[in-house]
From TrEMBL, chain A:
It holds the Pfam family ResB. This is Cytochrome c biosynthesis protein. The keyword rRNA processing does not apply. It comes from Streptomyces flaveus. It is found in: Membrane. Residues 62-543 form the ResB-like domain. GO terms for biological process: cytochrome complex assembly. The chain crosses the membrane at residues 64-82, 118-140, 210-229, 489-507.
Automatic annotation (TrEMBL), chain B:
The chain crosses the membrane at residues 18-39, 117-139, 151-169, 176-197, 209-237, 271-294, 309-328, 335-353. This is C-type cytochrome biogenesis protein CcsB. PANTHER family: CYTOCHROME B_B6 PROTEIN-RELATED (PTHR30071:SF1), HEME EXPORTER PROTEIN C (PTHR30071). Residues 145-358 form the Cytochrome c assembly protein domain.
Amino acid sequence: MSTTETGKRSAARDDDSAVRDDNELGAAGSQLSTAPREDAPNLPSLGVIGWARWFWRQLTSMRVALILLFLLSLGAIPGSLIPQSGTDEMKVEQFAQDHPTLTPIYEKLGLFHVYSSVWFSAIYILLFVSLIGCIVPRTWQFVGQLRGRPPGAPRRLTRLPAYTTWRTEAEPEQVREAALTLLKKRRFRAHLAGDAVAAEKGYLREVGNLAFHIALIVMLIAFAWGQLFKSEGNKLIIEGDGFANTLTQYDDFKSGNLFSSDDLNPFSFTLKDFKGTYARTGPNRGTPRIYEAAVTYSEGADGAEKKRTIEVNEPLKIDGSNVYLVSHGYAPVVTVRNGKGDVVFSQAVPMLPLDANVTSSGAIKVLDGYTNAKGEKEQLGFNAFFVPTFAGAGQGQMLSQFPAPDFPVLALSAYHGDLGVNSGLPQSVYQLDTKNMKEFKDSKGELFKQRLLPGETMKLPNGAGSITFEKDIKEWAGFQVTQQPGSGWALAGALAAIFGLAGSLFIQRRRVWVRATAGPDGVTVVEMAGLGRSESAKVPEELGDLAAILYETAPGAPDPDAEPETDAKASEAEPEPDAKVSEAEADPTPDPQAVPAEGAEQ
Amino acid sequence: MTLAAATNENLANLSNTLIYSAMAVYTLAFFAYIAEWTFGSRSKVSRTAAALTGDAKGAKKDTKKAGAPEVTVKKAGGTAVLERPKVVTRAAAGARDVPDGPGAHGGDEQGDLYGRIAVSLTVLAFLIEFGGVLARALSVQRAPWGNMYEFNITFSTVAVGVYLSLLALKKNIRWLGLPLVTSVLLDLGLAVTVLYTASDQLVPALHSYWLYIHVSTAIFCGAVFYVGAVGTILYLFKDSYENKLAGGGTPGRFATSVLERLPSSASLDKFSYRVNAAVFPLWTFTIIAGAIWAGDAWGRYWGWDPKETWSFITWVAYACYLHARATAGWKGRKAAYIALAAFACWLFNYYGVNIFVSGKHSYADVG
Ligand code: HEM
């Protein structure tokens, strides 16, 4: 650091005590960190390159980094208060209905997808550009500091935050030698510079700080990578059924921009059993207590079969894919017979839950194999409601009272005709398209419907056949299969960030100088001083420890003078070390606080 | 009702009784702290002015004593020889050299006695409250962090625990007692009235060892951030007081009486910085643990759920604060305001998000 620069900077920001330290201590106090220097905002008159350089300097300054951090936290706020389309599409629609005037404005501002909006991206991209622009020069600077040596002792050690001195009979060289050995033993980087030993320790602070900031970049890249290559699909599986991880098997599937279906890991699993128990009493009645799916799975195309249970917090992790248990419901088994009594359909039909007590709805579709009473081919359809715990006859609606199958009831209404599944339009398996279907009618001419208990059969009118609600009620579980490459890197980055941060915040970088010079009376004067980044209690403490050890090798000599403490006059009268060797003498007014050790305490 | 359920109910009732008893003892401690402050004001202390207006000699000597490490003096063979040289310390260039105040008792003996009584009562209340939290945990057979009532009682227990540990480590922070106990009373009052929730077990989404890690560190961080925030507020008051004195003004008598007894603004600033900086890595860890838990429970590590978002905002705000302290022109008061804003974010995350914003974390049910 050149002196002109120091001068300029201090002129610009003399509220900065670090800069003042620099002024007083010269090179000794400099470069205790690799923080970027604060430039005065002197506007350049240098044309495009000058402006570009100025802009870059600004962008990579601590002040702008601070402002960007500030903006980042402010910018994150609206997304937590306004519904976000990424998290809850329904709420966004609700909001649009409630606020017809605000909505278009919000839409323009990207407030329904804050975290992927242009302005939010701009903030964090600028921040990370600034971060890189900050890390690279700081790393070089730090490497330079590691290759160089700790700066030599400042002229006046008395100016430093921690200081001690004493007189000794030992020779100056001897003292310096002892100090050098001591400091090196204490893992300081120490060397002899002129009449003093200069030493520094705590470089790991800077390493930690750089590691932390680099880890932030690693995390950001890992997230971005994960977003581009991730995939996420859902699959509903009934007990006893299986799943193989290919695109066609998913009920729904979404993926990042760069994902290709070859990226899906090959594995398969079968749902053996779903087990759910629920709180029977207490304020949380009905909330799950046990909620787990027993599966067998095999890795790769045809790996060995293994057993596992998947729970809410314990996904099955296979080779980069995670299989989560996300939902659960019932799949009543029904048997449909034609007028002659032949079974034409026998299957577990999954019902979709509508509320927390698993009131569910679904559709039973008999696509082929059914012939009606007249012997014509036809399709059958049933709208179905299922409740695991029925309120009781005459208790109003088909609303479940509890999520466990205590009193299961299936309510059906029957249709016949064309289900419309071949029309080419995609159709939900949980809903009946009754456009081309006719209702079965009861005796009053209304839609034919009935509530069934397990084991009961509903006979369709006019010998059209029957449907039986079997006693065996199966359960199904919904699984989400996700693949997010880069999460390992994100985790590694996160861990590095924590350790880096701990190093950066808990390690003190500090310098110690030991000066030993021969006084005019031939007695050696030892001065020791310590300097840290901030005024830490540790710096004087450590200096005291070091001094105590050095003091044993260079014990105090009795002071010929009386009271050196008193005041400035006495200090001036005090015999000063030789002018040639000591710069201390150049100081016309020795600091009154610089109290020689001996006699300080009578 | 089974026998086990009855036991649990008994434990839950015991827990409630203990929490109410703790509140009673905290109230006594509160009055004892008040007495400490009141009696302390009888003694005349005005060292700040002396330090700031030239007549610094006396005050400076005090700083030396406070700042420098203990020096053992041993007499060997009649001549006084120091076993180790004395280290003198000096405030950084530009910083004010103001001595720390003597504490709430202001050097007054009776005040000091009341202070000691207050601390003893705080210890007692802490033990009772701890018992209450423990009984609650036993009654629900899990960690007591399932809803806001439980968060609150655990939170205040930890905050008092942090304070008492610092006292046990012989840190000069008895001045923190009054503000701390006041807010603990508020916190518990809120807990037993608005937030009370009968004891119950957890929903499976909260069944995870990451819960124990994530929530326990979150509560601990909150308690420590709180202690830091109190330090920051007192720093702001003390700093204006010192500024006023340095500018030749005369602060009011009440302000003088209270602020003279606090540590110097530099010490308060350093105290809150250390406290905040010390838990910031843990807060970082808390968020990461939360993300891992979310990854296991909900199939995504980060989804900008309101709770996640506000944890992130809090984190960035504290990062701002740490940055500000390394940025020219942002040290001191400005950084202190950022620290308070960051704590406000934490508070909002804790109360605001649970109450006003719905999200995946809203199982921390109120009422
Ligand atoms: C992604 C955003 C950033 C975050 C979350 C962040 C966070 C932090 C934190 C928490 C610290 C405190 C550690 C300590 O005090 O030693 C710190 C220190 C530091 N940061 Fe950042 N930072 C970010 C961006 C930047 C940028 C863009 C710069 C470049 C201008 C920068 C330069 C520094 C420096 C020089 C320090 C050390 C200050 C010192 O020596 O005390 N940071 N950062």
